Amino acid sequence: MAIPLKSPRFTSSATKNRFLQALDNRPTIKKYESNREAVRLIQQALVDLGFPLPNSTKQYDSPDGDFGSETDDAVRKFQSREFPGQTPDGKIGKNTLSRLDDLLPHAGVPLPPLVDLEEVDIEELATQNVLSVLRGAFVTQIHFKYRSQTINWGWYWRVKQHIEAGKIQIRYDSVVSNFGLGVYNPDERTMGGNSIILPSVDVTTWKLRSVILHECTHAVQDVQGTSLDRIESEGAAYVAQNIYHRLATRNKIRDGSHVAQAIHDAADPLAQRAIAEWYPTFSSQELDNLETAIRNAGYVSEVVQFNGV
Asked: Of the chain's two ends, which shows fewer C-beta atoms within 10 Å, N or C?
């Protein structure tokens, strides 16, 4: 008998049977559900569809698998949006699961195993999160030239090798949140150079994973060993970030900051070109539009010493 669900996120072997039961309402997945991994996938689906679960993702920087009041409320809000006129019940049964399956045809963000963050090396966890991005299939589909730079999978593979060898460090520092969602530091004299610094180990959305890809693009620039103007450096990183997000979701990046959104709006047409064409030639106007948006966001023109790893 064919599996009546299409999305890979609901057909994996670990939770397939539970979702098939829910599809027949025998029983539905609802509050206090015992299958934690199935609940985690439902929670991630809700997050992906615009129903944030701040409490349910706080402890592990990932869905916690606890179908409590917050998840119940998010399911009801989803049902109200998708089935107007019907009374939401907070249960994942035939109609709700089928709708999630239709809206999310692709595999979701890979969920990391649940760990007690107080008992693990948080920088090791951050390192594994970065490596999971670099080992993913989407990175192999990134290939473009940006002015003097060539960005492709082979260079990301080199970055991955340097991280595994300890030549590029992955560090955790909450202070970085004052500057954004990630920083790459090429300066060996400060802050432990040749390092990607993250303010969180959260990888619960494709947007957060695309930020990691952005910083890995700066690591590519460092591995290549060519000093760049910061505006040009950021331009290539934003194009790569938007390519990754488009490949994963088919959608452009949405950002709550107006100036940040302006950068993504300017980078997205280049990203779409790079997905459709093999090493496309970007026009001067396209590059100028992007770099103007980057300047307007407060980036200054200065030489960044990418001097090799």
From this structure: N
